[in-house]
TrEMBL record:
DNA-binding region listed in the record: 130-229
Record PTM 4-aspartylphosphate, positions in chain: 52
UniProt name for this protein: Transcriptional regulatory protein c terminal
Residue span(s) of domain Response regulatory: 3-116
Chain segments annotated as coiled-coil in the UniProt record: none
UniProt domain OmpR/PhoB-type: residue ranges: 130-229
Source taxonomy: Bacteria, Bacillati, Bacillota, Negativicutes, Veillonellales
Record Pfam families: Response_reg, Trans_reg_C
Record-level GO cellular component terms: cytosol; protein-DNA complex
Keyword Transcription regulation: yes
Gene Ontology biological process: regulation of DNA-templated transcription
């Protein structure tokens, strides 16, 4: 059985999440505070982590950031906070999805299954064909999920890598934020395409010689983004 970690201090919500996940065949472990949740997340292997933001000990943002420094386990953040800045912060720290309370338990289960399936496809190397994409000093190893800039490895988070790889595999084609969001996130996580811009900026900071004057990922004002045509694989 696939094992899920729930980090949640609200007993009612925790029990609801656990009951629905167990009814759908998952094994569930729980932690009621951020510090304990972080300890368990780093010590054990989980198929996915459900992470509340407002937690005693360490908040969800801190836990997410520290987990992401060591593991690529899918992280689904859950919070009553609806502000765009909170959603963008969650994605910025490496979360894969963000659900606002109150939520439908059936929708939660569907998202959990979708993220686990997507992660398993990616880690099994499907659709990569062992290819390596190169453009000037940039090298993207699709099967190994590694990126090098002038021989030095750049550490990209899950979505950053997927976004960069997708653009690089389709050089010269302009993609809207909506199309990129749909392609990379895979499900209608929050319908907020501002997170695409956040991820593009973070990618540029890590791979561009000058993030203000990007060489690889161009902004097509009023339309979206494209990977420069001369950077074909």
């Amino acid at each position: 059985m696939k094992k899920i970690l729930i980090v949640e201090d609200d007993t009612g919500i925790l029990e609801l999440e656990r009951d629905y996940l167990e009814a759908n065949g998952f094994t569930v472990e729980i932690a009621a505070d951020g510090s304990r949740g972080l300890q368990k997340a780093l010590a054990e292997d989980y198929a996915l982590i459900l992470l509340d933001i407002m937690l005693p000990g360490q908040d969800g943002f801190q836990v997410c950031r520290q987990v992401r420094e060591h593991k690529n386990t899918p992280i689904l953040m859950i919070s009553a906070r609806r502000e765009d800045c909170d959603k963008i912060c969650g994605f910025g720290f490496g979360a894969d999805d963000y659900i606002v309370k109150p939520f439908s338990p059936n929708e939660l289960v569907a998202r959990v299954k979708a993220h686990i399936a997507r992660y398993e496809r990616l880690t099994c190397g499907e659709n990569s064909d062992g290819k390596i994409l190169r453009c000037a000093g940039l090298e993207i190893q699709l099967d190994a999920r590694r990126v090098f800039v002038n021989g030095e490895e750049a550490t990209l988070k899950n979505r950053e890598f997927e976004l960069l790889a997708f653009l690089a595999e389709n050089p010269g084609i302009v993609f809207s934020k909506e199309r990129l969001f749909d392609r990379v996130w895979g499900i209608d996580a929050i319908g907020d395409t501002a997170t695409v811009m956040v991820h593009i900026n973070r990618i540029r900071e890590k791979v561009e010689p000058d993030s203000v004057h990007p060489v690889y990922i161009e902004t097509v004002w009023g339309t979206g983004y494209r990977f420069r045509k001369f950077c074909a694989s």
